[in-house]
Design a protein that fits this description.
479 residues, seven-stranded mixed β-sheet, 21% strand, 40% helix, 15 helices, alpha/beta, binds 2-aminohexanedioic acid, Aldehyde Dehydrogenase, Chain A, domain 2, 2 domains, single chain, six-stranded mixed β-sheet, Aldehyde Dehydrogenase, Chain A, domain 1
Length: 479
């Protein structure tokens, strides 16, 4: 029996039902779950913006403790409900149960972290150059923030946008991906029961068109977007044209350098995790493995053995290590990109276009002997696909690493202090990983990249305040 979940928008504390316009099925077992929801139009979005506007003043009047308590309550509820939510994520998006549960816990801790930050929004006060006068610097709310979030971290990414938005006194209009709307609705229910005033967080559903209405809506003061490079560029340009503050996290074609002196087993685990876990559907995934010649054969053989032993299967089974891609359209996209890579003359060591799998599953794929000017160096494949670039030494490795316009995450496996120091200076990326996978970040540290990967201030950690507040400088003197 197929379970059907029918979703509604959530605006000003109320469910707004409308005709279903999109559908998502369990990508591993389409007969298990069917999610359907409406597509927001300009009228629905305008209602959500009005509700958010009204809530900004209510939030300010309520004071910091109301917001801090509510964020802490959301964190506690998510922790208590982690198994149920993780199973929903697994069934809706194909993310493995283990990864999904880790993600729910991460979301819970993000709300906890920002519950604390709410009370720590401390300004400055100092003497003016004019005798007797004082200067005060306050970090004030921006107003109404639009959050546009992807399906690959369906609860953590909304958490790391919504929690700081609320912490610093903003209200939110949130448009989650139509591939992960049931998970979004489950988070929305937890937020709605947290004690935040109605309208603090509003959720409008739908696909790209709904996202466009949100980005272009009058009354939005800032947009925080995570998603593809192509959409991120459109969001950034639309926001700039209207003078709206914007933060965009997009893709990466992240490189992991493996030097000959590395601990080989650890380097193989880093590559395995970075390239193939979450079926490669992380913007921090490893797409390019840059390996020194003298160990490259041994490295590729060891990686192939580890991939062979991976348990690929039903994401709802807690022992599964790799699940399917999130939707048929993602599988079609990855399949066509792998064909494009093969058309450049690359041959897979394992996987590739001839390795057919059922439903939305896609075989882990590795290309070897890829050159730095290959198509694979410049194009993100959002699936379990990576290339090995063989290099003659550290300088060449850095050159290959920096050879594209992206710069989200970069990794280095080595035991040499000198290489680590040089890597920190020379790698062009926002996040550097030493003897660790390129993917998998902490929730209390800044997140973001350089070049075409990111635009605007960093997310997460204390750095989040920059985007979610506007500085007010007050001069005052007693008369
Ligand atoms: C991680 O690697 O732990 O969309 C997080 C993404 C990123 C999040 C990656 N924004 O994949």
């Amino acid at each position: 029996m197929t379970e059907t979940i029918s979703l509604s928008h959530h605006i000003g504390g109320q469910s707004i039902t409308a005709q279903a316009a999109f559908e998502q099925r369990n990508p591993a077992r389409p007969d298990d779950l069917r999610v359907e929801g409406p597509e927001a139009d300009a009228v629905v979005v305008a209602r959500a913006v009005t509700a958010a506007h009204d809530a900004v003043d209510v939030l300010a009047a309520g004071g910091v403790e109301v917001r801090s308590d509510a964020l802490a309550r959301i964190g506690r509820t998510l922790q208590a409900d982690a198994d149920r939510l993780a199973l929903l994520i697994a069934r809706e998006t194909g993310k493995t149960f283990g990864d999904s549960k880790g993600e729910v816990m991460r979301a819970a801790r993000l709300f906890d972290f920002f519950a604390g930050e709410t009370l720590r929004n401390i300004g400055e006060r100092f003497d003016s150059t004019r005798p007797g006068a004082m200067v005060e610097v306050d970090y004030a709310p921006v107003g109404v923030v639009a959050a546009v979030t992807p399906w690959n971290f369906p609860i953590a990414i909304p958490a790391w946008k919504i929690a700081p938005a609320i912490a610093y006194g903003n209200a939110v209009v949130w448009k989650p991906s139509e591939i992960s709307s049931a998970t979004a609705a489950a988070l929305m229910d937890v937020i709605a029961a947290s004690g935040l005033p109605a309208g603090s967080v509003n959720m409008v559903l739908g696909a790209g068109e709904a996202g466009r209405f949100v980005v272009e809506a009058d009354g939005i003061d800032a947009i925080s977007f995570t998603g593809s490079v192509a959409t991120g560029e459109k969001v950034r340009l639309a926001a700039a044209a209207r003078g709206v503050r914007v933060q965009a996290e997009m893709g990466g074609v992240n490189g992991l350098i493996v030097m000959a002196d590395a601990d080989l087993d650890n380097a193989v685990e880093c590559a395995l995790n970075g390239a193939f876990f979450a079926a490669g559907q992380r913007c921090t995934a490893t797409s390019r493995i840059i390996v020194e010649h003298e160990i490259a054969d041994r490295f590729v053989e060891a990686l192939a053995r580890r991939v062979d032993a991976l348990k690929i299967g039903d994401p709802a089974d807690p022992s599964t290590q790799v699940g399917p891609l999130a939707a048929p359209r993602q599988k079609a996209l990855i399949a066509s990109q792998v064909k494009e890579a093969e058309a450049t003359g690359l041959k897979p060591v394992f996987g590739g276009s001839s390795a057919q799998m059922d439903e939305c599953f896609y075989a882990p794929t590795l290309f070897d002997h890829v050159s730095a000017d290959n198509w694979l160096c410049h194009n993100e494949i959002f699936g379990p696909v990576a290339g090995v670039f063989r290099v003659g030494g550290f300088d060449e490795a850095i050159k290959v690493l920096n050879a594209n316009r992206f710069g989200l995450s970069a990794g280095l496996c080595t035991k040499s202090f000198g290489y680590v120091e040089a890597f920190k200076r020379r790698a062009r990326a926002g996040m550097l990983m030493v003897n660790m996978p390129t993917a998998g970040v902490d929730y209390h540290a800044p997140f973001g990249g350089t070049g075409a990967s990111s635009y605007g201030p960093r997310e997460q950690g204390r750095a989040a305040r920059t985007f979610f507040t506007t500085i007010k400088t007050t001069y005052q003197k007693p008369v």
